[in-house]
Amino acid sequence: MDLPSKVVLVPMKYFLFSILSFFLLSNIVFGQSSQYESVGQCVLQIMDEKKLSGNKMFDLVKDECERLMKSKRRIKVDETEGMFVTVGHSGTILTSSDGTSWTERTSGTSMSLRGVTYGNGMFVTVGDRGTILTSSNGTSWTGKNSGTSVDLREVTYGNGLFVTVGRSFTFLTSSDGFSWTQQRTSGTSDGLTGVTYSQ
Predict the structure, then answer these.
(1) Which is more confidently placed, 18 or 61?
(2) Contacts of 29 by beta carbon, 8 Å cutoff, 6+ apart
(3) What is the pLDDT of residue 127?
(4) Which residues contact 137 (CB under 8 A, 6 or more apart)?
(5) Distant-in-sequence contacts of 123-129, Cβ < 8 A, 24+ apart
């Protein structure tokens, strides 16, 4: 029987590669979603741990990691929807689902916390001596390296970027809440105490 003229025969090696890749990525990623904090970390860790190589495999891993992180962000939003978070002296963090009943959380720091915001699926709070803490659920908090010992006074999120400001015209930015970059373009030598974003 003649084949229709529009049928394209895919070489067997590409077909087998696709099937193998699907099962390989399924086993690698699906059961380990909680350990990845970003697409880049997901791709690099999988490629390294499983000794993978090649541009096609990299693209497959990247696509799967992007799908995974989107799903993870949706889960985080569901967990934190409607949650209030407030911070204060000596590392105090309180959360509430209704604004009336509050639960104290363990911050892991004795530094006073001055500002808190939410964006990109996580809470970020900042405070004295360069303290930055992040949380995906408002309950468990992890310290991050801000690269400064200056007191941070406020933090906000907008346009895909976390921004925090503080004493001595300190101005830090982060796209993911984990890695922070100190900027030098505030245009003032005075301390900064507030920052916001208009949508």
Answers:
(1) 61
(2) 42, 46, 64, 65, 68
(3) 94
(4) 76, 79, 80
(5) 123/80, 123/85, 124/155, 124/157, 124/162, 124/164, 124/177, 125/85, 125/87, 125/93, 125/155, 126/152, 126/153, 126/154, 126/155, 126/164, 126/166, 127/87, 127/91, 127/151, 127/152, 128/152
pLDDT at 120: 87
Q: Could you tell me which residues come within 8 angstroms of residue 43 by beta carbon, excluding any fewer than 6 positions away?
A: 58, 61, 62, 65
DSSP 169: T
Mean predicted confidence (pLDDT) in 74-96: 75
The domain locations on the chain are 12-79, 84-183
pTM of the model: 0.60
| Residue where the block lists tokens 């970020």 | 124
Average pLDDT over the chain reads 76
